């Protein structure tokens, strides 16, 4: 499996043993790399490591213009996948071919939003960085109205506002979560994050059968993301399937 950015992000800027990281995440291979930007140029380095043996299987460096950044990302992904498993599953192949935003500025706003979302110091009733993340995701879809992933992230932000009891208008937040999810899915019907948020919406509305349907879909579309399994488990729990929810 490919571990989600949310799980791997917990090790950012920490001095950790590679074998311990691999053991905690349940992976065999680890990708390390860096991105350096200067003017209109970018240098990307990446290396693939077998965590069990600490053996470097592959490394590469790219010096490109920013206009080529999405092509480089695809090239890096394909190179790593070819080293790990020459025969990709249909799901992993789709991930490599996922849609990119048409505008680099939209991508930058999206990444800024992710940074605030992943680094925020959240508590119940207060999460100032969540609002900053939303502002960047809003800018991303303003620049590129066809950027499905940013709409999905906006839906997720609305979900966090509900679960952390931040919102002062529950109905408005629920409706926004629904609308952002539907917009994301209209652009990418297999966006697992949007399916996850839509499952949560129907669960909040008491329509647990629909919540279960979308929870199962989000796991099918991305079985490697822990939030999707969490959503499925929570929905099963609400339906009274306690043993299944623990699996």
From TrEMBL:
Name of this protein: Uncharacterized protein
PROSITE patterns referenced in this protein's UniProt entry, alphabetically: TPR
């Amino acid at each position: 499996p490919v571990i989600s950015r949310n799980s791997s992000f917990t090790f950012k800027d920490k001095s950790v043993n590679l074998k311990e990281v691999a053991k905690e995440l349940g992976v065999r291979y680890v990708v390390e790399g860096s991105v350096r930007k200067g003017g209109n140029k970018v240098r990307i380095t990446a290396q693939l490591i077998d965590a069990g043996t600490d053996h470097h299987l592959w490394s590469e460096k790219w010096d490109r213009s920013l206009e080529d950044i999405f092509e480089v990302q695809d090239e890096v992904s394909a190179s790593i996948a070819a080293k790990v498993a020459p025969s990709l599953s249909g799901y992993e192949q789709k991930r490599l071919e996922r849609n990119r935003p048409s505008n680099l500025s939209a991508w930058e706003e999206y990444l800024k939003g992710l940074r605030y979302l992943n680094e925020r110091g959240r508590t119940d009733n207060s999460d100032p960085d969540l609002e900053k993340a939303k502002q960047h995701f809003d800018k991303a879809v303003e620049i590129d109205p066809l950027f499905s992933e940013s709409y999905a992230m906006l839906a997720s932000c609305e979900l966090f506002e509900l679960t952390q009891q931040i919102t002062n208008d529950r109905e408005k937040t629920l409706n926004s979560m629904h609308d952002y999810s539907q917009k994301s899915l209209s652009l990418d019907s297999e966006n697992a994050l949007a399916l996850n948020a839509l499952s949560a919406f129907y669960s909040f509305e008491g329509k647990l059968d629909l919540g279960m349907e979308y929870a199962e879909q989000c796991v099918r579309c991305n079985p490697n993301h822990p939030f999707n399994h969490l959503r499925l488990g929570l929905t099963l729990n609400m339906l009274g399937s306690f043993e299944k929810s623990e699996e």
